[in-house]
Each structure stands twice: as C-alpha cells, then as structure tokens.
Specification:
Number of domains: 1
Shape: globular
Strand content: 15-25%
Order of helices and strands: HEHEHEEEE
Largest sheet: 3 strands, antiparallel
Number of strands: 6
Radius of gyration: 15 Å
Strand order of the largest sheet: 1-3-6
Distance between the termini: 49 Å
Number of helices: 3
Length: 146
C-alpha cells in the first residue's frame, strides 16, 4: 500500500457514528484561517479537534455528538471573528494566542460552517487526518490590532 495513502485516514473516533463525518460536501481546500491556540503556543496541543479537547477534559456530555462540527478543528476566516474568540478565551485560559495559516489539504478536508448550518461568523470546520500536523502551516498573528 502507498505510504502517503495509508496516512490519509480519519481518526477512529469518526467511524461508526450515526452521522456522516466528515460531510460529503467537505473538500480539500486551502483557506487562510485563524486558530486560537489556548496553550499560548503554536503546537500540537493547540490544534486538537473539539471532540479530543472535550474527551481529555472529561466533558463530552457538554458536546453535541450528532453535530459533525464536534469532530473538527475550529478556525475562522475573518480577523474580527478570531479577535472575538481570542477575547473570549482570554477570560478562560491563561494566555491564549491567535495564529494565522492555511488549511492544508495534506492535513484534512474543510467546510465553511455557514454552508451546513445557520451562522453569522466565518467559522471553518477542518476535519483532520490521523497523524496530520496542521500547526506547521501557522504563525503567530496579532488579531487585536485593526
């Protein structure tokens, strides 16, 4: 089997769901996005899908497991939305930072959240392949400056 092909699989927690995850409309696309890094660093721990974050904290009961977005990495296209999220997380975590980068097709597939449900912000869902390294495509961004 081709090694590159073997690496392009979705994590086990996305299999055997009652929903199709990722959605069939998700695609390999490069989108410039912002990600809030709650650890204060651009590292693997700051790029965990929502499901994994909640699972590690033991708070899965607070997550809608029938929403495909629960299994994605959350990003934002617009600086304004990233700024709002950074301000929100500043109240909950010690020193989060914003990072800007691209949704590399080598790491997974994406879909703008407004394409699948009603939302007013620029949220992007990014479903990552196993062993992907999305943080390598990001750098720190100062979203508090206009």
């Amino acid at each position: 089997m081709n090694k590159n092909l073997a690496e392009k699989v979705f994590p086990a927690y996305m299999k055997n769901l009652d929903i199709i995850c990722p959605p069939v409309e998700a695609k390999k696309e490069k989108i410039e996005v912002y990600r809030i890094c709650k650890t204060g660093k651009i590292e693997e721990r700051s790029f965990l899908p929502t499901y994994i974050e909640y699972e590690e904290k033991g708070t899965l009961t607070f997550l809608d497991l029938n929403d495909v977005g629960a299994y994605s990495l959350s990003c934002y296209e617009k600086k304004r939305d990233a700024r709002n999220k950074l301000i929100f997380f500043t109240k909950k975590t010690p020193k989060p930072i914003a990072a800007v980068g691209i949704t590399s097709p080598d790491c997974g597939v994406v879909m703008r959240t407004k394409e699948r449900k009603r939302t007013r912000d620029s949220h992007v869902d990014w479903w990552l392949y196993e062993n992907s390294t999305p943080w390598k495509y990001f750098r720190e961004a100062n979203v508090l400056l206009r």
